[in-house]
Amino acid sequence: MIGRNYNSTTDGLQTMSRQSKLNPIFARLKFNSCVQGAQPVEQFITQLRVLAKDCNYSIGVKNEMIRDCVVFGTSSKKVREKLITKGEKLTFYKAIQIAQSYEYSQEQLKTMSTSKTQQQFTK
């Protein structure tokens, strides 16, 4: 029974992949529907890059579309606010830099908080 479910799921994913490669409109739907969720920024951007390949965008347009998806699809309101504040000056690379910097700073703050808590318990 498990084998059947696995095979049907695999077949479904392969069909969706073929459909997006054959149909740029479907590929763009998948691309524009992508959100970060709980995944790290780097994985989110990689996912967007992979999805953008089947959209038939030119290089310049592809980077702008990925930039926009980072703005709209980020899971952080603070990152979105920073990105929107940049306005027309926001480039593809700047959007990635801002999102990654924010994520790294949050990880560092969490580490600092954990270290401080551990120091309080050892006193």
What's the structural blueprint in terms of helices and strands?
Layout: H1 2-22, H2 24-32, H3 41-53, H4 59-73, H5 77-86, H6 92-122
Helix pairs in contact: 1-2, 3-4, 4-6
The topology string of helices and strands comes to HHHHHH
User: Which word captures the global form?
Assistant: elongated
Number of domains: 1
% residues in beta strands: under 5%
Average pLDDT metric: 85
Query: Structural class, from secondary structure content?
Result: mainly alpha
- Main sheet, how many strands, which sense, barrel? none
Low-confidence stretches: none
Number of helices: 6
Give the terminus-to-terminus CA distance.
Answer: 57 Å
Radius of gyration: 19 Å
DSSP helix fraction: over 70%
How many E strands? 0
Task: Summarize the entry for a quick read.
The protein is an all-alpha fold and 123 residues long.
Could you walk me through the main structural features you see in this protein, from its secondary elements to its overall organization?
The chain has one domain (2-122). The chain has helices spanning 2-22, 24-32, 41-53, 59-73, 77-86, 92-122. The termini are far apart. It has six helices and no strands. By secondary structure, it is mainly α.
